[in-house]
Each structure stands twice: as structure tokens, then as C-alpha cells.
Amino acid sequence: MKFIIAFMKHRGEHLPKAPRQIPLRIVLIAPFVLQIFAAVSLVGYLSFKDGQQAINNLAKKLQQEVGARVDQNLSTYLALPHQINQLTLDAIDRGILDPQDLETAGRYFWKQSQIFKQFSYLGYVLKDNAAVGAGRWLPNRGVVITHQLGGSLKNSTYATDARGNRTQLVYEADYNSIDDPWYTGTAKAGKPIWSRIYIAEGFGDYVAASANVPFYDKSHQLLGVLNIDLLLSDISTFLHQIRLSPSSKVLIIERDGMLIGSSGDRPIFQTINNQIERLSIVNHSDPMLRAIAQATQKQFRDFKSIQNTQDLEFQFNGQRQFVHVKPWQDKYGLDWLVIVTMPESDFMAEINANTRKTIFLCLVCLIAATVLGLFTTRWLMQPILHLGKASQAITQGNLNQEIEPSSIRELNNLSQSFNQMAAQLRSSFLILEQVNVELEDRVEERTLDLQNALSDLSRTQTQMVQSEKMSALGKMVAGVAHEINNPVNFIHGNLTYIEEYSRGMLHLIKLYHQHFPQPPAEIQAERSALDIEFLETDLTSILQSMNMGTTRIKDIVLSLRNFSRLDQTQVKSVDIHEGINSTLLFLDHRLKATSNRPEILVVKKYGVLPKLECYAGELNQVFMYLLTNAIDAIEEQNLKQNSQTIPEKSNEITICTSAVDRNLQIAIADNGCGIPEPIQQQIFNPFFTTKPIGKGTGMGLSISYQIICDKHRGQLTCSSIAGEGTEFVIKIPMLQQIGELK
Q: Which residues of 634-668 are buried (b: 16+ CB within 10 A; e: fewer)?
């Protein structure tokens, strides 16, 4: 029993520090309060969300209805001019109206202008520039008639009496109608069309579009063009009558964003220095219109890309706005957009009131639940406190504890269980005292064995890693030695000729000094034998060859330094392409053609990359592993084929670099034998290899994975199809923190 008490005290001394304690009264009250609060809050939230959804549906439905209403009105309103033009064409075809009788035609159009007051002008222009029409385009004037004789540029405008007769000249100006774009465009089209929207200078706010149609004689020769002008202000007048909500707006725009009509007081054109200019929704002075344009362009790139009815939402001044965009087109060439917008705040008053009621009910229920919880906890606390005191006594070594029964069934069961547990605990500690000594001995023995095993494993792993590093280093040194050997032999082979030529030239110079200025026949013969001109040329060529060889040696040494980075700090900003090119240079001897296969082609698809803060030497080591594996895979594939049947372009390694989503991406792909799917799951595991003894230890890909993923916080992935090839993709974040790398 003394052992049990000592053990309990020892356990108490080493128990972790108790967390912040919460009274049981709060623990019992909190669930009731939280449940009620959560239930009321959830109901209120769902009610609020349902209200919002209902608002969204209502807003969309209203917008669709307004869009349909605008669509129907535009279709009716804009089809009427072409219908009137068709009636005039029928009158000309039937001989009721003679186009050459300008007087009669003027009264005809005067009568039409009296009937169709929504048209600002009706008339026609003949191909000889003769023209006649009637309309209401002059400020402070009723219906007037224009008259222009054939072959003349003078266009005259007359006031009229109650019967449509001309009374007095009120305006006169030169105007060549047949050169105007609306005339030439209609004549070229050969069918009813709309002209572009234009501004008639000098006639107030005359911004209109013209409905035009050409007419012909019986031999289908052009006689002239009928036209009817519609003012854009009439479209805005119709839109003013539409009132969805206090802050709703209806707009009609062209595909370039120019305003055609607006339901509010927003102007569709402005006057600057007595010049009228149309306004665009994109740069309008009204910030709300600009916000609509920005939201629409952000979601659909530009207005021209909207081909179907679209609904979107955006925030403006802290309020959500609903926007309904509907294309409108007709068969005469008009292509407009109808935009209906309304703020959510116009519908949220009732929902906000319901939200306040929900919050009030939540507070009432919270207070009621708290009061009820206090009474309940007072009833439950007494037996639980007795149980707690008995538990504390047991922890202090006093195992002779017993709890009295309770009137609450669950607490009574808990008391009985506690009493049984105390009895079993007394029995268990007696057995534990006997087993404890044996257990401590076994733990010490197992701990020692585990330490020895871990030590052996660590040594083995270190040896394997070092062996793999030495293998990679040996391949790199072999490649460097191979590249340096050729230029050194080249220089050494040419030194003999340089020495021989130099002796001959020195000898010849010496003879010249002895017999100058008239050399004897012996010197002449020697000079002829040496061929001084050839010697000078060949000596220069040899010296150039020697210079190329020494330059080659310097480049190789420089590439060796770039690859190993032995002369630089461990973490440095480097050019990734430089490291790849250096690695390829060391592997050049393995890329050249052999008796068993053609040359391995390296296709470089380099992107424009910034410099990267990294472990340059270790990153080059990764390139060496991946490129070496690619060459091995191609050679293994070639061993399965006849060297005579291997296509020239079948041996290929592709290296692609790019910047993707703030990462530098290097993809190295080959068309070798590939990796079977079961093996792909194991290639990054330490010590895993499929190569025979002497071809590597299997640490290359595992080390590469650690360098890319652990040291550079990047990704290294592999995708392969057996028999077709393998691709390794490296992704390294461009923004590396040097402190984190270290």
C-alpha cells in the first residue's frame, strides 16, 4: 500500500498543469443556452436568407418583365418607320406618288408628319440630289417642308399653312445628300437598313437614327432613297414611364457603350462649346452608370461578347445591385443592349424589421434558458460534488472511498460504478506493484535495442546518400574530362607544327641576314622549299585553332563552376537556364550518337524567367539526376530495338521552362521506355531502384524530391506511360524567403 500511495503522489507531481477551470454550473447552463440561441439564430438566419432569395427572385422577375416590356415597345416603335417607308414604296409603285413631283410629295410627307408625330423627319432623296420631306426638326416651329431641286446643292426649308402649302422660307443651306453616308450606305445595301446614330448640328438636341430604304424603277435602276428620322429623346421618354422601384434604372446602349436611352435624369448627350457630344456609359459623369459598365465588362469582358440574356450582381456604395442585361436586335441591323438595374435596399426594409424581431426573441429565450439552468444545476450539483471529493481523495492515495446512493437514476448508477471502480483499483494496484519491476527491466532492454537499431539505420542511410552523391559526382567528372580532352589534344597536336614552322622561318631569316641583299642560290632554294607564303597562312590558322581550344577549356571550367557553385554562397539568385545548360554540357558525351543508337536530340523551349533565390548547386544536382534518368530510359528503349530501325527523331529530350501562377516550372520529358504504373508510386521512396548493381543506388529521385519539396517549398511530379516516355515537372515558387530557405 505504501508503494501505491507513493505512486499516486508521484503521478500527481508529474501531471500536466490543469487548464483553466470552468464551474460546473456554467457547463450545465451553457448547453441549454447555446441550443436555444443556436436554434433561434438558425431560424432567423434561414428566414433572412429565404427573404434574400425571395428578393433575388422578385428582382430577376421584375427585371425580366421590364426587359420584355422594353423589348416589345422597341420592336413596335422601331418597326413602324420601315412600315411607313413600305407604304410610301407601294404608293410610288402604284403611281399614286410621282417621285419627280416634289410639290405633291412635299404635301404627302407633310400629311404623314401630322399623323406620325413621333417622327422628326420623313422624305426622300433622288439620285440627282433632288430631295423633299417634312418634319419637326426646327426649334419653336411646327411642321416644315424641305425642298431641293435636282442638280442643286441648295436645300430650302419652308413654313407651311394648315393645308401643307409652303408659305415662307425659314432656312436655307447647301447640302449634298447623295454623298452623305446614310444615302450611300443604303444604296449599297440595296435593302431596308438603319443608319448609324448621328447629330444634326445647328438644330438643338437633334440626335437621331434614320430608317432608310432604296427604291427603283421598273428596270431596277436606283431612283433614290426614302428615309425617316427617329429622335433618341423619344426612347428616353418611354423609359421614364417605367418605374420598378425608387432607385431602379433602365438603360439602352449600343455595343460600344454609347447611350441610346435612359429612364432617369441621366443625359445621353452633352453640349460643349455649342457642340453636341454623345455620352458613353463607360465614362459617364454619373458614378452609378460607370459602376454598371465596369461590373458588366468585368464579367463579360466587353459589351460585344454578350449574346444572351445575362443576370449579375455587384456592390455600389455598400449596397448590392441587381443587373439584367438583354440583347435587342432587329432584322434591319440594330444591335443594342437593354440594361435593367435595381438596388437590393429597395426591397430589404421588411426583411430588416424581421431580423430585429428575431434578435429580440433570441435575447428573451437566452435569459429564460439561463434562469432555468440555474435552478437545474443547483439540484444536480450536490451528488456531483460528493463524487468529486471522493475522486480527489483517491488521487492522494486514500482508496477507501464510498459514495452514498442518489435519488437520480443516472447519478445513482454513477455512484455504484464509482464504488466498484475503487474496489477494483485497490486490487489492481497490488498486482501493479509486482509487475512494475519486471516492466521497467523490459523497457530498458527494448530501449537499448531500439537505440542500436536506429544508430545502424542512420549509418546505413548516410552511407547510401554518400554513395549516390559520389555516383553523381563521378558521372559529372567523367563528362568534364571528356569535354576537356578534345581541345587539349587539339592544342598538343598543333604545337609540333608551330615549332617546325618557327625553326624554318628562323633559319631562313638567319640566311637572309648573312647574304643580304643578294641571297645566293642556296637561300633561294631553301626559301622555295619552305614556301613562306603558305607557312605564314598556316601558322595563323594554327594559332587560331589553339585559341579556340583554350577558349573551349575555359568555357568547360566555367560551366563546371556554374554547375557545382563552389565559388558562391549557398543561397543565391541564379538563372535557371544557365544551370540546365551547364548540366547538358557535362552530359554531352552521352547525348552523342553511338554504335547502338543515333544522337539524342535536346529540344529547349525556354520561357522568359526571372532569377530565382535557391540552392543553386543542389538544384543543378536535381537537373543531373533527371537528365541522366532520361538518357538511361532512352538507351534502355533502344536496346529493345534494332539499331537500323531506330528513327532519327525517336531519341529526344524536351526541356520546357515557363512562369505559371507565380511559380517557375521546369518540365523534362523523354520518349524512352517509360515507367510502369505500379512502380510510379514508389519512385520517390528512399532506396527504391530498378537499376542493376553499379548503375546507381536509387537515391537520385528521393534526394531530388527532398531538394525541391523540402528545401525550396516546391513540387516534383511525374507522369509516365510505359513504352511512350516520362515527364518530370518541377514547380518552385518565385517569391522565396531567404530566411526560410536557410
A: bbebbeeeeeeebeeebbbbbbbbeeeeeebbbbb
